[in-house]
Amino acid sequence: MLKFQLFVWSIVLIFVYTSLFAAQRNAAPDVIDLSNIPASALTILGLSVTTLVAAKAITTTTNFQTNKTAKLDTRQRPTEDRKATSMRNLVTDDAGNPDLTKVHMLVWTVVAALVYISHASQIISEAVTAPAGTSSLTFPDIEMALVILLAFGHATYLGNKLVSSDKPQLSRIRPPTGDEASVIKLSGSGFGSLEGGSQIKIDGLIPEAQVTSWTDASIEFMLPPRHPDSTSWIQLTNPVIRVSVGVGALSSNEFSFRYQSDVSGLLTIPDQQFAMPHVGKP
């Protein structure tokens, strides 16, 4: 989102500057003054650059802390790279969930850019028709109200990123379908440790799952014999369960897992005795 915002404002300012420069040829001498770029325009660019650097620093610090205890699953990197270049990333967080702070920034960036271009067009029209001796028309200012709204969006975004950097994040679940014998692998970051009180959650409840591996970036476990609410798996009304990770009072985003009986082929059916029909004379 921040790169997109920086790109938009760079294009807008270049477009306005070149338009004013071209208008000088049709305007009276000294009507258009391009010697000074307004502080509001520089402020917008500065906000975008500063917030981008700060957000990158937060992300880098979080990843460094994660990598100290676990190696990231390299198989998930192509998925993350594709997501980073997707247009959806403009309004979603690192886990792919809708991010209202990004929506706020996107809306006001578009509004401010359109208002600014409209203001610049008005100045160009006045400059072309203005007689000689008219007071110089300069590079247009960005409305202070819009600057404040954009600055508020940047501050909210950084605050939200600081808070979410401590929150566990799920990025992948494999396989997406299985049974009690399937080994389920969760990938992400900030999972903490079992000794530190971290827990797997199924539909918001804590199951007695058999954990085979746990690191800060990866968890492997097997489903318990029953759903955490004591319902048999095959009797669930909805076979799709929601899996998440809890670290203290914080919970990660949720991923769906579909229960499918004996998909692993490793389950056994208990021995049963069948009454054989009597054959022959009574």
Low-confidence stretches: 66-85, 268-282
Overall mean pLDDT score?
77
* Global shape: elongated
Number of alpha- plus pi-helical segments: 5
| Tally of individual domains | 2
Proportion of beta-strand residues: 15-25%
Secondary-structure-derived class: alpha+beta
Helix content: 25-40%
Cα(first) to Cα(last) distance is 85 Å
The biggest sheet, with number of strands, parallel, antiparallel or mixed sense and barrel status, is: 5 strands, mixed
What's the β-strand tally? 11
User: What is the gyration radius calculated from CA atoms?
Assistant: 30 Å
Order of helices and strands: HEHHHEHEEEEEEEEE
Q: How would you characterize this protein structure?
A:
The chain is an alpha+beta fold and 282 residues long. The chain has five helices and eleven strands. The protein has helices at 2-23, 39-67, 77-84, 100-129, 144-164, and strands at 32-33, 137-138, 169-174, 177-178, 183-189, 199-202, 210-214, 218-222, 240-247, 250-251, 255-259. Strands 4, 6, 9, 10 and 11 form a five-stranded mixed β-sheet that branches. It has a four-stranded antiparallel β-sheet with strand order 3-5-8-7, with no helix packed on it. Helix 1 runs antiparallel to helix 2 and helix 1 runs parallel beside helix 4. The longest helix has 30 residues, at 100-129. It is elongated, with a radius of gyration of 30 Å.
